[in-house]
């Protein structure tokens, strides 16, 4: 059986990621708004569940210093390679990659040591009813990293560690995450909701 990692490619220099950097709508997008990019402010962000690194790359492309935490060795290695390629590519992509710092480890252990301004949490969500709707890429990631059964605990650590706010990226129609306080407010994207918790 083929290793799901063999079929997963992370690339910041081409495709949708590079396109979003150049034509994505800047700070007016839901995620930059959710992390507090307004009025000229550019907070430093810790992406506690780095995954494919796309959200981190978007925020870094808008000027934020972003620390990415990834606990899967496989995903960490793929992200490290992608960042290396982006830095080698030069130009604006390299500038963005230079604002991204990648750490290997469990965010629950690392967050308290980082004193982050803003924490972004995007846990693996349980598969939706119709598996055809779940993109192949997301299925591959789920095979590599599993489902984040400890996401409530991660949110509790994030809420205790963040100096300004925690942003939870969550499916648009899903009920709020159980076991944590209600968000201060939410910002809706197309299929995603950003629940914002001011600390």
What does this structure look like?
This protein has 199 residues and is an alpha/beta fold. It has a single domain (4-198), classed as Rossmann fold, CATH 3.40.50.150. It is 38% helix and 18% strand. It is built from eight helices and seven strands. The chain has a seven-stranded mixed sheet, sandwiched between helices. α4 (73-89) packs antiparallel against α5 (91-97). The mean pLDDT is 87.
Mean pLDDT comes to: 87
Structural class: alpha/beta
- Oligomeric status: single chain
CATH topology: Rossmann fold
Write out the strand line-up for the largest beta sheet, numbering strands in chain order: 3-2-1-4-5-7-6
The major pleated sheet works out as: 7 strands, mixed
- Terminal-residue CA separation: 46 Å
Binned strand content = 15-25%
The CATH architecture = 3-Layer(aba) Sandwich
Radius of gyration: 16 Å
List keywords for this structure.
199 residues, Rossmann fold, 7 strands, single chain, 8 helices, alpha/beta, 38% helix, globular, 7-stranded mixed sheet
Strand and helix map with partners:
Layout (H helix, E strand, L loop, with lengths): L14 H9 L6 H6 L9 E3 L6 H8 L4 E5 L2 H17 L1 H7 L2 E5 L2 H8 L3 E4 L14 H10 L5 H11 L3 E7 L13 E4 L3 E7 L1
Parallel strand pairs: 1-2, 1-4, 2-3, 4-5
Antiparallel strand pairs: 5-7, 6-7
